[in-house]
């Protein structure tokens, strides 16, 4: 049988890794796919010919990516350029030309996935995006197929390696935020704009995709609440540890009574949870299904070969699906397109969670009682309190409180009142807290 012909857009880190994997494992991949797979046409604006030669086999290389998506020889386009544009235009044109698409572009899928999947369905082609979430971990396959029997209750994941690397180094080595970020950039893990990593935008792209797959709702990146890690202070990492918790930057999506929660934020989680011990650039995703219970998926969330592992697995899936009836393929968002629901995504004010609060309190009688009184009036129950001795010459002390679960709107009111109270100084630090129990 004729080899399947691939058009590859982008020869950067993941593009290079994909060439390497497709060349190195060509025989085994062909035995799995049922056909040989060849990269016949690639696109790259600037590249070092020696580096490209060392990667593996590529047919010709053009500098205009549109010539690849318009190449009549190409069966499957792999989009590894990243970003919103021209990636969107390239993918839509490839679909219009009747080509299947593989992409690692989480930003593209999170923002334009609904449009792209509708176009693909109309044309009878597939768009595969395993590498868009958690790099080499086959989490999309797991949620979309492996867990298809379950009513998924929630997903919580460490889905940005750069952010996890920064938090791990801060906790273990007391290193400064900026220094660790620079190292992640040098290692090639960080996004082109590293604020996407530290402010949680990259994780929110990925969580948007997971939420849709889990609950059968259209992609809604604009409704995903996002809070980064740049304001986490070493003292909060230390207080959390004293109380038996670790701070992780989690993406959480949950089925609540009134709708779906979609949120990315620093989170205190009990240190004994397996996911609390996922450190460095590694990713992990914890999925709670009603039948299976909790399942945890761990692995490299970024990097050339791990991400290429997911890209090439998608290519193999597509090669196997080339001859199948388009109406009987695995749906892009796990649920049949006409079965997606309009269940609302909840605003963060309606989300219920527990909290860690750090209040800078004046060291005088009645302050603790007054703060406890405010919390009680807002219906917030305190689970633990920790007060440090004032440092020599200091008139204020850090007061740490852990609360039971409460709606965020009530916590916002309480924090506003505590900040206005003359027994507290400055802003209250609030970090959401999750037990991640079944
Ligand atoms: N910047 C991302 C990360 C790369 O650090 O996880 C993989 O999406």
From TrEMBL:
<comment type="pathway">
    <text>Amino-acid biosynthesis; L-threonine biosynthesis; L-threonine from L-aspartate: step 3/5.</text>
</comment>
<dbReference type="InterPro" id="IPR005106">
    <property type="entry name" value="Asp/hSer_DH_NAD-bd"/>
</dbReference>
<dbReference type="GO" id="GO:0004412">
    <property type="term" value="F:homoserine dehydrogenase activity"/>
</dbReference>
<dbReference type="InterPro" id="IPR036291">
    <property type="entry name" value="NAD(P)-bd_dom_sf"/>
</dbReference>
<dbReference type="GO" id="GO:0050661">
    <property type="term" value="F:NADP binding"/>
</dbReference>
<dbReference type="Pfam" id="PF00742">
    <property type="entry name" value="Homoserine_dh"/>
</dbReference>
<feature type="domain" description="ACT">
    <location>
        <begin position="356"/>
        <end position="433"/>
    </location>
</feature>
<keyword id="KW-0521">NADP</keyword>
<dbReference type="Pfam" id="PF03447">
    <property type="entry name" value="NAD_binding_3"/>
</dbReference>
<keyword id="KW-0028">Amino-acid biosynthesis</keyword>
<feature type="binding site">
    <location>
        <position position="106"/>
    </location>
    <ligand>
        <name>NADPH</name>
    </ligand>
</feature>
<dbReference type="InterPro" id="IPR016204">
    <property type="entry name" value="HDH"/>
</dbReference>
<feature type="active site" description="Proton donor">
    <location>
        <position position="206"/>
    </location>
</feature>
<dbReference type="Pfam" id="PF01842">
    <property type="entry name" value="ACT"/>
</dbReference>
<feature type="binding site">
    <location>
        <begin position="9"/>
        <end position="16"/>
    </location>
    <ligand>
        <name>NADP(+)</name>
    </ligand>
</feature>
<dbReference type="InterPro" id="IPR019811">
    <property type="entry name" value="HDH_CS"/>
</dbReference>
<comment type="pathway">
    <text>Amino-acid biosynthesis; L-methionine biosynthesis via de novo pathway; L-homoserine from L-aspartate: step 3/3.</text>
</comment>
<dbReference type="InterPro" id="IPR045865">
    <property type="entry name" value="ACT-like_dom_sf"/>
</dbReference>
<dbReference type="InterPro" id="IPR002912">
    <property type="entry name" value="ACT_dom"/>
</dbReference>
<keyword id="KW-0486">Methionine biosynthesis</keyword>
<feature type="binding site">
    <location>
        <position position="191"/>
    </location>
    <ligand>
        <name>L-homoserine</name>
    </ligand>
</feature>
<protein>
    <recommendedName>
        <fullName>Homoserine dehydrogenase</fullName>
        <ecNumber>1.1.1.3</ecNumber>
    </recommendedName>
</protein>
<dbReference type="GO" id="GO:0009088">
    <property type="term" value="P:threonine biosynthetic process"/>
</dbReference>
<keyword id="KW-0560">Oxidoreductase</keyword>
<dbReference type="GO" id="GO:0009086">
    <property type="term" value="P:methionine biosynthetic process"/>
</dbReference>
<dbReference type="InterPro" id="IPR001342">
    <property type="entry name" value="HDH_cat"/>
</dbReference>
<comment type="similarity">
    <text>Belongs to the homoserine dehydrogenase family.</text>
</comment>
<keyword id="KW-0791">Threonine biosynthesis</keyword>
